[in-house]
Amino acid sequence: SDQKTNGTARTAPAVAGPERRRSHLPALRLIGPGRAGSSLAAALHAAGWRVEPPRGRGDDLGDAAAGVDLLVIATPDDVVAEVAAAVDPVPTTVVAHLAGSLGLDVLAPHRRRAALHPLVPLPDPETGAARLAAGTWFAVAGDPLAEQAVADLGGRTVTAADDQRPAYHAAELLTRAADIRAALEGARAAGLTAGLVPTMGSLHEGHMSLVRRAAAECDVVAVTVFVNPLQFGSAEDLATYPRDLERDLDLAASAGADLVFAPPLGEMYPEPPSIGFTVGPLGEVLEGASRPGHFAGVATVVAKLFNLFGAGRAYFGEKDWQQLLVVRRLVADLSFPVEVVGCPTVRDPDGVACSSRNLRLSPDERAAAGVLHRALAGAVAAMEDGERDAARLGRAMADTVTAEPLADLDYATVVRAADLVPLDPLEGSVRALVAARVGGTRLLDNVGVTLPAVAPRTVAAAVETWA
C-alpha cells in the first residue's frame, strides 16, 4: 500500500449526531475499485452498509457523490486530486481517499472530507475483506464518518494529521511507539503473522536480504530505523554514522516492508535509561571487551523494540555473530514471544561483508577491507585441511591482517559458535571471527565451520606416538 501515517491510537467511537441516527443503511460508492477499495467495500457490505455500483476509468464522475453517504476514491495517489475535482460536490456526502501519504486538501472542493487507510496488507479483495472485517487498525483523518466506518468493522483508529504526511512511500512510516504497537496488534488480530527487521538505517543489500526473508515468511513486515546511542562508545562514531531515511524508506519498501518505524531519540528514550542490562560472559569478550557497554546498549534497545513488536519473528544477520547470540540469550532469559532468525552474511563480489560502515571507507581503504575476508578464508582452508589448533589459526589470521598497511587488528580467533568459548582442539560448530580498523573505520567479519568430532586417542595410538 502506498501510504504512511502517524498519530494517536484509539478505538473508533460511535458517532453522535445525524450519521448515527439515520434510519437508512449507510451507503458507499467507490471510484477506481482496486484491491484496497474492493476489500473495503466488501467488508462494509458484510457489516450492513449498502454498496452502490462503482465508477471506473472512462465513467462520468459528475454525479458519483449523489445518493451515497461515503464516496471513496480508491485510485493511485497521483490522480486523487484530479478525480476529486471531477466529482460534483454534494453537501451531505463525505468524500474520502485511501492514501495515507495524502492530506485532505486534495479532496477540494468537497466540504466533508476524510482519509481512511487500513494498516494491513490487502493482497486481493477476498483476503483483504476478511482482514478488514477482523477488526484491524486504520489511519483516519477528517470527517467522523470515517471513524464510524471503522467502528462498524469492529476496528480501531490512528489519527493522521496532514502535517504528519510527508512524501509518498510504499511502506508506512511510523514514528511513535504507540502507532507501531497498534499496527502490529491490529495485524495479529486479523490473523496475520508479523516479522521484524531491526536496523540502524543506511540500508544495504545485507539488510535487504533480511527484509526479503521476512516478507517471504511473514504476512506483515516491520523494519526499524533507529541509530541507538547506547551502543556507541564514541560520540564521534555516533555523529558520523551514515543516515538517509528517505533512501531507507524506498529500499525497505522495495524489499517487501509494510511498516517502517523510525522514531526520534526522545520517543525511544524520553529520559536517559536508569535500568540497564548486565549481559554476562557472552557480552564481555571480543566486541564486548573492545567496546565496553556496547552489548548492554544493544540489549536495552532490542528489549524495547521487542516489547513494542510483540509476538512474531525477528531477523538478524550473522555478520554480527556475537550480537545474534546476545539477542537469542535475551529472548530466552526474558521470555519474549519472539523467534530470532539468523540469516547468512551477504558479501560484495570481492568477499567484503556488506556493512553501513563501508560507506565511510576511501577507495584505498575499501580495497584494503578485503583483508578480513582473506584472513577468514585462510582459516577455513586450514581447518578443512585438518588444522584444529585455535591458537595457530588465530596467529595465521592476525598475520594476514597485519600485513595490510591500512589495517589495525583488534582480534582474530576461532571459538565455539554457540557461546564463543575457546576450544582445544577445535570440533563441532565453530566460528572464526576477526575485527580491525581500516583507516578510521572499525570493521568485523566471521565465518562458520562445522568440524568432525575429534576421536578419543586410544592407548595403542598413544604408545605408538610416544615411541
Topology:
Layout (H helix, E strand, L loop, with lengths): L8 E3 L6 H4 L5 E5 L3 H12 L3 E2 L18 E4 L6 H6 L8 E4 L15 E6 L6 H9 L3 E6 L1 H9 L3 E4 L12 E3 L2 H13 L4 E6 L5 H13 L2 E6 L9 H6 L4 H11 L3 E3 L3 H4 L18 H4 L3 H16 L2 E6 L3 H14 L3 E6 L19 H6 L1 H15 L5 H13 L4 E10 L11 E11 L2 E11 L7 H8 L1
Helix pairs in contact: 2-4, 12-13, 15-16
Radius of gyration: 28 Å
Mean pLDDT: 88
Distance between the termini: 76 Å
Runs in which pLDDT lies below 50 for 5 or more consecutive residues are: 1-23, 165-169, 457-467
| Classification by helices and strands | alpha/beta
Q: Which short descriptors sum up this protein?
A:
six-stranded parallel sheet; 17 helices; alpha/beta; 17 strands; disordered C terminus; 467 residues
Report on this model:
The protein is an alpha/beta fold and 467 residues long. It is 35% helix and 21% strand. Helix 5 links the parallel strand 7 and strand 8. The N terminus and C terminus are likely disordered.
